Amino acid sequence: MFGQKFESKLKALGISVAFVTGLILNSQESYATPHPNLVVNTADVDAMQAAVSRQGRFRSAFLATKAAVDSSLKGPVAVPMPADAGGGYTHEQHKKNYQLMYNAGVLYQITEDGRYAEYVRDMLLAYAALYPTLHLHPKRRLGAKNPGRLFWQNLNEAVWLVYTIQSYDLIRPSLSDTEAETIEQGMLRPIARFLSVESPETFNKVHNHGTWLAAGVGMAGYVLDEPELVEQALLGLDKSGKGGFLRQLNTLFSPDGYYNEGPYYQRYALMPFVTFAKAIDNNEPGRKIFSYRDGIILKAIDTTIQLSYNNLFFPINDAIKDKGIDTAELVQGVAIAYGKTGNPQLLDIAAKQDQVLLTGDGLKVAQDLDANKQEPYVFKSRAFRDGKEGDEGALVVFRLQVNGDQALLFKPSAQGMGHGHFDKLTWQFYDRQAEIVTDYGAVRFLNVESKNGGRYLPENDTYAKQTIAHNTVVVDETTHFNGDLKIGSSNHPELLFFHVGDHVKISSAEIDSAYPGVTLKRTLALINDSDSGHVFAIDLFDVQSSRQHQLDLPLHYNGQIVDTSFILKGYKDSISALGKKNGYQHLWLKAHAKPESGLAQVTWLNDNGHFYTNSSLVDGKTELLFAELGADDPNFNLRSEAAFITRRKNVRRHTFVSVLEPHGEYNPAKEFTLQAESQVAGIELQRSDDLELIAIALKTGVTKLMAFNSREDFSAQTKTAFTFRGNQFVFRGRANLFSIGEK
Q1: Confidence (pLDDT) at 712
Q2: Closest by alpha carbon to 441, among 318, 584, 259?
Q3: Partners of 563 in the beta sheet?
């Protein structure tokens, strides 16, 4: 139970280790047999104690954690008076403290070495002395309803409690009754009270902040033997079910496990959901929390994984773009899900995460990875329904594996609460591990105190949330719903259809509330031409209105323009912003063009070494505006990114038609370039009733014809026959791909 160094000292003094152990176990301040009951239970401890003596991933993780904690134990306990916002010293120190306490608590359970329990005890006693002296945090946002004491907002305080209550649970048996009473009365109970009855707006809120508070308070209820706290956490302060953990499970996730704010915040919200659920399952298995709402927690874990590409989450809404599947929240989620299901595909994700948790579930993951039980995780083409009933649009993902790894994301989903962007029907495209058609994500330097304390920057509202920052139609340079969150939250697109076939993956959606009197309808398809190896993304965007408007369709791209099929007119002496508001004020107008009627092509080179050409049908009255982000940004808060905007003025109805084509290769190291030019020679759109035809003429003389039936009341067995260029065609189902002119 002692460290090796201490045992050596005892032996040098001629004192039996067993004798001292007996004295301690019989004393009033004894180290009792540990019985944790939150995420780690007694059976987990027994298994982990046996595992650390055997070679493998778990032992390696244990030794690494032990070395890190042992190093920290050499320093003094630091519990500073709160002074800083996110990223500042005191903020970061309190974060380090809860992480250190948790790790030390786990090590105490595994090793039964009292040093770890003593360190956690001393830190908890320091917090018990500090917390009663605290008022609201000095860096809280004035007027906000979510202030903290240890941290600038109560969200962070709840995160602190989720970890700290586990730490206390892990070392509680080592404490005297006096020490436990001091910690509970001085700090744990006051924090639980502060986060519940003293923070009703946040605690009862159906939002990830409310989930964190409910999880911290509910877990405290189990450890402090306060069933009232558990019931309030599950059902809201008045226990009516209008708030609380179960309401959050019912409301924040769709039936497919999609979280309303998008994958970035789904990842963040996942930690309190899975951690509290694990605690509920350990303490009250009769609640069957992992079966609740058709297994919604396990669905949410899988959906979080599905909404990633190249190990990073799709950056919709307020997203930091470098967050991915290796985040602590999803590591915990994957381990817990594997512990419940034993799904070998989850081991594939765990291997990519390359992190082992010192928990019972973490042990199962580590041992089964050591035994090579993993199977490849399958990323699927899916429409993830949005809204608690699944009737508020969807987030659509198409996947292909053709000469690389392609993904097309289509976003006819709900607003996403306060973290949502005004980007109805936007899209993104990925190829060969790179983002090709991009989304900005959030304007925020997380935990960089010099950048507004790590909070969201003003340009998040003035640019990132505005419609022009996305790849969807802007009417009269105004933002969807006029930028009104309440209106946006009350309206959503309708998913018209979703179809996945071998050669054509296609989906369509529309919305008539983004602008008064305007209907926006978009159909996106990902085409796999197995004969030639080509991949095409086809975009049809229909706009109908009762009066004339200016229509802008931006495409934000990642790379360097290398060619256009028309003459660009640049600005040599000066440049100006594209507009004065709604995000336009942040875009420098660098060049413009007015191509002749026909095909307008823009080709750029991505850092992945491949070329991408966007080919659009234009009518001779269409303008192309080339813009670069950075105007009206005196503090350099925005990244320098590029877009080109297809503009059509004075129209009641218009259809934007374009095809995105990956092609070629550029290798500067070996000095070769292949197929730098697009193979698309022409595009044709034909419509007849519900039948729509998109013909892509290639320079080889072959035409690829995509046909689809847009009727909503549709059967997979429906047969469609048509004539094109004198040829007869027939297909069953929603869509098909044909080749014309092949020898």
Answers
A1: 78
A2: 318
A3: 603
Whole-angstrom Cα distance, residue 542 to residue 379? 30
Among 662, 732, 314, 661, smallest CA distance to 502 is for 732
CA distance 6 to 109: 18
* Residue 156 identity: N
Catalytically active residues, by annotation: 265, 419
pLDDT tens for 154-195 read 999 999 999 999 999 999 999 999 999 999 999 999 999 999
Report the alpha-carbon distance of residue 314 to residue 113 in Å, rounded: 44
Tokens linked to 338: 């594997």
Residue 630 pLDDT > 50, yes or no?
Answer: yes
What is residue 515's DSSP assignment? E
Residue the block writes with tokens 């007027």: 143
Contact 452, 442 (CB under 8 A): no
Identify the bridge partners of residue 543 per DSSP, sorted by sequence position: 520, 654
Phi/psi region, residue 580 (left: phi>0; alpha: psi -120 to 50; beta: rest), is alpha
Q: How high is the pLDDT of residue 9? A: 39
Structure tokens at 53: 């003596």
- In sign, the C-alpha dihedral spanning 474, 478, 484, 485 is positive
Residue 718's pLDDT band (cuts 50, 70, 90): confident
Tokens of residue 39, six digits: 């995420």
| pTM score over 0.85 | yes
Question: 184 CB contacts (<8 Å, ≥6 apart)?
Answer: 224
CA distance 157 to 506: 45
Cα–Cα distances (Å) from 90 to 68, 130, 195, 444, in that order, read 21, 13, 20, 20
C-alpha neighbours within 13 Å on the C-beta side of residue 263: 31
- Average pLDDT value for residue range 191-208: 95
Residue 79: name the closest of 114, 138, 118, 125 by CA. Answer: 125
Alpha-carbon distance 318 to 624, whole Å?
A: 28
Give the dihedral of Cα atoms 238, 240, 244, 249; nearest 10 deg. Answer: 180
β-bridge mates for residue 614, sequence order = 602, 660
Residue 589 β-bridge partners: 576, 627
Q: Residues 560, 457: contact at Cβ < 8 Å?
A: no
Is residue 488 within 8 A of residue 513, CB to CB? The reply is: no
- Find out whether 641 and 586 touch, Cβ atoms under 8 Å: no
Cα–Cα distance measured from residue 716 to residue 733, given in angstroms and rounded to the nearest whole number:
4
Find the helix or strand (DSSP H, E) in which 602 lies.
strand 598-605
Q: What is the Cα 439 distance to its own chain's centre?
A: 13
The CA distance from 195 to 221, in Å, is 12
231-264 b/e with 16+ CB inside 10 Å = b?
Answer: ebbbbbbeeeeebbbbbbbbebbbbbbbbbbbbb
Residue 478 DSSP symbol: B
The Cα 336–Cα 290 span in angstroms is 10
The length of the chain in residues reads 743
Contact status, residue 413 vs residue 425, Cβ threshold 8 Å: no
**C-alpha angle with apex 276: 90 to 390, nearest 5 degrees?**
110
CA 263-496-705 angle, 5° bins? 100
Angle at 266 between CA 438 and CA 465, to 5 degrees: 45
What pLDDT shows up at residue 35? 64
One-letter amino acid identity for 365?
V
Backbone phi and psi for residue 42, each to the nearest 5 degrees, phi listed first: -60, -40
With vertex at residue 263, the alpha carbon angle to CA 402 and CA 200, rounded to the nearest 5 degrees, is 175
Query: How many Å apart are CA 333 and CA 269, to the nearest integer?
Result: 11
Amino acid at the residue 509: A
Closest to 85 measured CA to CA, from 77, 94, 76: 94
- Give tens-digit pLDDT for 68-116: 999 999 999 999 999 998 888 999 999 999 999 999 999 999 999 999 9
DSSP codes, 247-284: HHHHHSB-TT--BTT-HHHHHHHHHHHHHHHHHHHHH-
